[in-house]
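Sanity check. The docking grid for zinc ion depends on where the pocket ends up, so I'm generating a full predicted complex first rather than guessing from homology. Inputs follow.
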Amino acid sequence: MNEQIQGLHHITAIAADAQRNFDFYTKVLGLRLVKKTVNFDDPGTYHFYYGNENGTPGTILTFFPWEGIGQGRPGTGMATDIAYSVPANSLDAWKERLTRFNVSFAEPTVRFGESYLSFTDPDGLSISLVAPVKEDTRAPWVSEDITAAMAIRGFHSTTLSLRSTEATAAVLTDIFGYRLLAKEGNRHRYVTDAVNEAGVIDLLELPDGKPGYNAAGTNHHVAFRVSDDTILMKFRDKVLSKGLQITPKIDRDYFFSLYFREPGGVLFEIATDNPGFTVDEPLDQLGAGLRLPKQYEPMRAEIEKVLPILK
Ligand code: ZN
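Predicted complex below; grid placement will be based on this.
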């Protein structure tokens, strides 16, 4: 059993409109909706999970679409970019596709020898498509108009914006087993050798950066992946031994979680592979129906009345 942190598990962000969010991530970017549930702390709000066919950790971007929530502001103490890996030579096809859907983008830039095509989602969340140096071998979710030649494979990395990177870097290296790969200006790239994919974290040092404000168009937290809840609890001890606060184990139905705020201000989660998204619906039906946690099942009719209907 691999006892290390295995890269990213999921990233959770905030949106202001469920339908618009669903359309963008499934129809423009071509991700699979692998789970449609509610916010466990606020069951009148959806919780969407987008990923690959199997909902593999490291491919999962989740949203709380709070209807009408105000605009957030990306800034320090937050993840400020989500990068997905796509096949080499697919960026031109993506530029065409984004143009067709009226999504404006910046001309690709190169970081650490890899090309980035960056744009924002309808809420202003920053997304990049990266053609990585090393081919990403994960199986994608494909559709009629997004074939395997261009389909998103899953996360490449995320960027954390910080006033100072030192304390956050120590969490990555001393607790999570990452190492500094390289620096380009104020961008410091950390990687883990425990996995081939979704194993990159960029720390962007912005000493005069304004703190972010968490609402629509911003990331709420970044979750790191472990195999199971026995290993999860070992990480709880490690975090505590560094003098940081951390929650008890929380059952999220599809994984078990711990949350802690790293010293740079970013909310970190550690989440397990078990039991996974097929715990309450079969693989070929993932995301098809509204799944509710046990405690809300008796209130299904009321909840369905409140949630916006997806077309
Ligand atoms: Zn989470």
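Relevant for the grid: The chain has a mean pLDDT of 97.
Also worth noting: The chain has one domain: 8-306.
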